[in-house]
Design a protein that fits this description.
This is GTPase HflX. Pfam families: GTP-bdg_M, GTP-bdg_N, MMR_HSR1. Its cofactor is Mg(2+). By secondary structure, the protein is of the alpha/beta class. The chain is about 40% helix and about 20% strand. It is built from 13 helices and 16 strands. It folds into three domains: about 10-100, 3-Layer(aba) Sandwich (Rossmann fold); about 200-365, P-loop containing nucleotide triphosphate hydrolases (Rossmann fold), CATH 3.40.50; about 365-430, 2-Layer Sandwich (Alpha-Beta Plaits). Strands 6-7-5-8-9-11-10 form a seven-stranded mixed beta sheet, with helices on both faces. A five-stranded antiparallel beta sheet has the order 13-14-12-15-16.
């Protein structure tokens, strides 16, 4: 029911009002891109201004007449509003226009339904759609408005409307139960990564900022990436190796948008929790977009809603190839800490700077130096190799092994604990003293 879509686009009349009662205006260009992403075929664009929307139609009766003429003239099958309509406004407009009416929330839900590819993604979209539909049930089955008495006509004693609501509630409960299992599985995965001290880096940002293209460039994956809104819906995670850091889990998330419907935030909470539990957020920004600052503000609002506003964040200004005369660089604060990287995920320019910035932000407590291991410490050597921490090694004249390592100190402490070795008992070499053993407290970090 929820995932059957026509093969061809639908003729649609678009409606956008500039409301001046304090509500932030939607972007009409973004609205048109949303319709195109949904497979719609815009045939007319009706605009207007009002101080406050009307309770019955949102638009005035004069604009309603203009809209009716446009629908009839172009034989449009759909009227799409760049606003949130109440259930009664939607029904009143459909009655007057004699065509389907869709608001901004319904449009985004339809795009999400087309993009969902995994079982989890489809469940999340269906949940959001059911919650949206539950407020819009009408008495469509007039011949069954009341269950009648008599042989073969006795029913549960409820109207068809009540039956529909009950079935919707049951389905919503089933989906919520399944998604709760998904959330539990994700939580187990996060706990496993925390025990293994593997940091998670999540790509977040406004829709169509280039997150999936950057994800594919870094990981070599083949995540669906197109120049359209909400090209990515299902979360994807890959394990990568970074210099000085080791293993890192990189997560690609669904794109944000201005006034993201609250039902979508709730339905995708299991997915968005990956971002809210990350060690670092890569906020990918379309550097060539005119509304760049507005998009940044909208992403920050969603991050605040999911409890991720206080996490460490690195801004990634993407699409550098669209800016004339721009070059890749790292922006730093007064203390020298990376705060932004300028790159192009399409051409790969600046990718090395991004890896450098991530390593600097996550690579606190790096241990690097030459360590002397005795023959009975073979297990320690093997575990250091398993973490890819060994840079070089050679045997000394006394039969001991001199090994040069580089890894996060937390990983080293975890390995030592598994081997039953104390950190203070390690024998480090001072490279400036021709192999003389140094005090472990002076080990390079």
């Amino acid at each position: 029911m929820f995932f059957d879509r026509p093969e061809s686009g639908e003729l649609a009349v678009l409606v956008h009002l500039n409301l001046s009662h304090g509500q932030e205006a939607e972007d009409p260009r973004e609205f048109e891109e949303l319709v195109l992403s949904a497979g719609g075929d815009p045939v007319a664009f009706l605009t207007g201004s009002r101080v406050t929307p009307t309770a019955k139609y949102l638009i005035s009766t004069g604009k309603l007449e203009e809209l009716r003429q446009l629908v009839q003239e172009h034989k449009a099958e759909l009227a799409i509003f760049n606003h949130t309509l109440t259930p009664s406004q939607e029904r009143n407009l459909e009655k007057e226009l004699q065509c389907r009416v869709l608001d901004r929330t319904g449009l985004i839900l339809d795009i999400f339904a087309q993009r969902a590819r995994t079982f989890e993604g489809k469940l999340q979209v269906e949940l959001a759609q059911l919650r949206h539909t539950a407020t819009r049930l009408i008495r469509g089955w007039t011949h069954l408005e009341r269950q009648k008495g008599g042989i073969g006509l006795r029913g549960p004693g409820e109207t068809q409307l009540e039956t529909d609501r009950r079935l919707l509630r049951n389905r919503i409960t089933q989906i919520e139960s399944r998604l709760e299992k998904v959330r539990s599985q994700r939580e187990q995965g996060r706990r496993s990564r925390q025990r293994a001290a593997i940091p998670t880096v999540s790509l977040v940002g406004y829709t169509n900022a280039g997150k999936s293209t950057l994800f594919n460039l870094i990981t070599g994956a083949e995540v669906y990436a197109e120049n359209q809104l909400f090209a990515t819906l299902d979360p994807t995670m890959r394990r990568i190796e970074l210099a000085d850091i080791g293993a890192v889990v990189l997560a690609d998330t669904v794109g944000f948008i201005s006034h993201l419907p609250h039902r979508l935030v709730e339905a995708f909470r299991a997915t968005l929790e990956e971002a809210s539990n990350s060690s670092l957020l890569l906020h990918v920004i379309d550097s060539a977009a005119e509304e760049r600052l507005r998009n940044i503000e909208q992403v920050d609002l969603v991050l605040e809603e999911i409890g991720a506003a206080d996490l460490p964040q690195l801004r990634v200004y993407n699409k550098l190839d669209l800016l004339e005369g721009a070059s890749p660089q790292i922006d730093r604060d007064d203390s020298g800490k990376p705060i932004a990287v300028w790159l192009s995920a399409q051409t790969g320019v600046g990718l090395d700077l991004l890896a450098q910035a991530i390593s600097e932000l996550l690579g606190k407590g790096i241990v690097a130096g030459s360590l002397v291991l005795e023959p009975q410490q073979g297990r320690l050597r093997a575990m250091l190799y398993s973490q890819q921490a060994v840079i070089d090694e050679h045997y000394r004249d006394d039969g001991n092994l001199e090994i040069y390592i580089r890894l996060p100190k937390d990983d080293l402490l975890r390995i030592l604990s598994a081997c039953g070795t104390q950190y203070d008992s390690l024998l480090w070499l001072d490279p400036g003293d021709d192999g003389e053993l140094q005090n472990p407290d002076a080990s390079p970090t």
